[in-house]
Amino acid sequence: MNTTINLKQINKLAIPALIAGISEPVLSLTDAAIVGNIPHNATESLAAVGIVTTFLSMLIWVLGQTRSAISSIVSQYVGADQLHKIKNLPAQAIFIVTSLSLFIILSTFPFSASIFKLYNASGLILDYSVDYYKIRVMGFPFTLFTIGVFGAFRGLQNTYYPMVIAIIGSITNIILDVVLVYGVEDIIPPLHIKGAAYASVIAQILMALCSAYYLLTKTPIPLKLSFPFNKEINRFLLMILNLFVRTIALNVTLYYASAFATSYGASYIAAYTIAINLWFLGAFIIDGYASAGNIMSGKLYGGKTYKTLIELSNKLIKYGIVVGLILAVTGGVLYYPIGHIFTKDTAVLREFQAIFWIVLAMQPLCALAFIFDGIFKGLGKMRYLRNVLLFSTFVVFVPILFFLDSIDYKLYAIFIALTFWIIARGIPLIVKFRKIFIPLSQNN
User: Fold this and answer.
1) Signal peptide: which range, if any (predicted)?
2) pLDDT for 162-205, tens place per residue?
């Protein structure tokens, strides 16, 4: 059986997923904007937020792949009308990943200074990085719990409740950021960068509590851990393993980008922090349509409706590129004012404005890469995703970055290399998808 896909159906999933997806970069951007305007040592504080955010993003992306794996399996079973067979899988998956998060905390907390020295942090920037990390990492298990629940909702073709949870968390974080960073006269002393960290942790705990409430009251999926393990747990773990290797490659990219920027000096890493967080924001906005692709492709694949799957991919390409162009144009209109939201330091603004155009030009290219990334996750084809990212990181990004750095391109080197990295991620996925599913759709 084939159905027709229209913009309304896509947007019903994409827009709430977009709002939910930007919650994590909004937390980081809020911290950056608030901390970047504190009265003393704002540049060092902003740099520290950038370094720690990069490292935490690595941890979240490594273990947060639970969302994609849960969503893929659940959506395929929904498409096959056999959800009852995997109802206990999400709780088991969430238990596994949150247990790993506790191990991560125990293994990184005592060595946080050594970790951030690897990012070329030193002096006051290193001290601030350690202070900020030791607080923010405490929210890590709650973030992963929330991500796992979001995966279950996505598999059920529901992005509304994740959106509600993300809005609650983001508003809470913004309010607490202002209160705890700047303080309230005669009531709460200003905590500066530590205040930003506390605000994020409290917001993450609140989001986890809301996630548990909505999953238990709005879906048939339980959170009570039960044994034996579901028969799909092996496929889940294999997906996670492939995504784990893939995410290591992804974070090699982010590590080198952050480490090189830090090595250029405080103004450069502060400018890089603003630019990369805006890039993350754009990526997560586009990811709304990637999420729709993830959710719908899994269901269509499970139901073997290949013609509709091809139709979905074609429409997502069009919508994604339009969103990418809107982001680029909006950023162009706000090109100079946007930097002043994060800092008043003229040296930082100069470096940021010199390379921000590259971030904007990347947006339509990001749309293609991220949308097909989402589709392949929905299909459960994590092995191919792994191989593509290994290629784009080690054969494309790293050589280009080192070459351009050797001729003193500094931040230009980082963002030009990122552009080629995105292209190398997108094209192979499009070619592979059409090679597999166009023949299947003709026989469908």
Assistant:
1) none
2) 999 988 988 898 899 888 888 887 788 877 888 888 998 999 99
**Claim: this prediction has a pTM higher than 0.70:** yes
Rounded Cα distance between 177 and 225, Å, is 35
Q: What does the alpha-carbon distance between residue 344 and residue 122 come to, in Å, rounded to a whole number?
A: 23
**Contact call for residues 401 and 417 (beta carbons, < 8 A):** yes
Half-sphere exposure of 108 (CA within 13 A, CB side): 21
Distance in angstroms (rounded) separating the CA atoms of residues 417 and 403: 10
Tokens 């809020």, located at residue: 30
CA distance 391 to 149: 31
Distance CA 127, CA 44 (A): 10
Beta bridge mates, 188: 184
Opening angle at CA 252, ends 247 and 256, nearest 5: 150
Q: Which single residue is written with the structure tokens 């492939």?
A: 242
**Six-digit token pair at 398?**
């790293």
Please check whether residue 315 is in contact with residue 10, taking contact to mean a CB–CB distance below 8 angstroms: yes
Nearest C-alpha neighbor of 167 from the set 221, 212, 211 = 211
Task: Give 442's contacts (C-beta < 8 A, 6+ positions apart).
Answer: none
Residue with tokens 């979905």: 312
Residue 104 to residue 99: CA distance in whole angstroms: 9
Distance CA 255, CA 274 (A): 16
Q: What number of other Cβ atoms are within 10 A of residue 30's Cβ?
A: 23
Q: What residues have CB less than 8 Å from 379, skipping those under 6 apart?
A: 72, 297, 298, 301
Q: Which residues contact 149 (CB under 8 A, 6 or more apart)?
A: 90, 94, 162, 211, 212, 214, 215
Instruction: Pull the structure tokens for residue 186.
Output: 């005669």
Tell which residue, 7, 4, 1, has the closest CA to residue 316. Answer: 7
Model confidence at 400: pLDDT above 60: yes
Q: DSSP letters along 282-337, please?
A: HHHHHHHHHHHHHHHHHHHHHTT-HHHHHHHHHHHHHHHHHHHHHHHHHHHHTTTH
Q: For the segment 359-370, what is each residue's pLDDT rounded down to a tens digit?
A: 999 999 998 898
